[in-house]
Structure formats: structure tokens, C-alpha cells
Known about the structure:
single chain; mainly alpha; Arc Repressor Mutant, subunit A; three-stranded antiparallel sheet
Amino acid sequence: MTRRSPRLVFLTTAAERQMRRWIARRGGAHTAGNGGQGFGAPATGVLLHLADHPGATIGEVTAALQASPAGASGLLARMERADLVRRRPDPDDRRTVRLDLTPAGTVALGDVRTALAELNDRLTDGFTADELATVGRWLEHVTRTLS
């Protein structure tokens, strides 16, 4: 008797889609600054990256998000119009543009961190530390294997 393997690709993509929707509903609304529309998971990633890497270049943010340059450029333009990030020239290389959180971006970051803590609590509820370590190890394996 052949054991049927789990539908891991389907389950992973379905879970990722649901997480993005949740972030867009819960976390994205907190990052809005644009009439309550929100930006969702990609903007959340920008806020979190700039919190840990103030003054990052556009290229660094694009790489951290694993985004296309065109997609990142559009996202950053929307976030700039929403007063969440600001661009500034690099003092040592005027061709390089650096990004910083604005005061409104810092407030949105706090809201995002609260929302993500809630999401993490919901997703990990009922699982042991060993089970979560296995899931984490598997997800890291997937990322490494497919990059």
C-alpha cells in the first residue's frame, strides 16, 4: 500500500494566501495613511526592514523583500505618498537613494508589530516548541532549496 504524500505545495500556497489576506485586513489597515486602504504584506515588510536597517538603499529593500525592482519602486512611491517613508540622497554618493521611516511610518510600524504578534500567537496556538521548530526548519529548507 502506497502512502499518499501530503499536498504540501497546495497547503503552503493556500496558507500564504490566507496570511497575506489577514495582514491586508488587519495589519494593512494600520499602515494605511491613504484613506484606510492599507498596503498589505509587502508594505509591512518595508516597514520592518527599515526599522532594522534605517537608511537602507532601495536595492537593499528590494532584495530583502525578494521583489522586482519595478514592484518595489511602485510600492515605495505609494508609501512615500502616504508619508510612511522618505527618500534622501546618500551623503557619500549622490546617485544612491536611501530610505527612512517617517514619524507616521514609525507609528504604523508599531501597529504592524502588534498585528503580527497577534497573527503569530494565533498561528502557533496549540503547537509544541518541537513541532514549531520542525515547521520552521521545513520552511527554511523550502526557501533554500528553491532559491
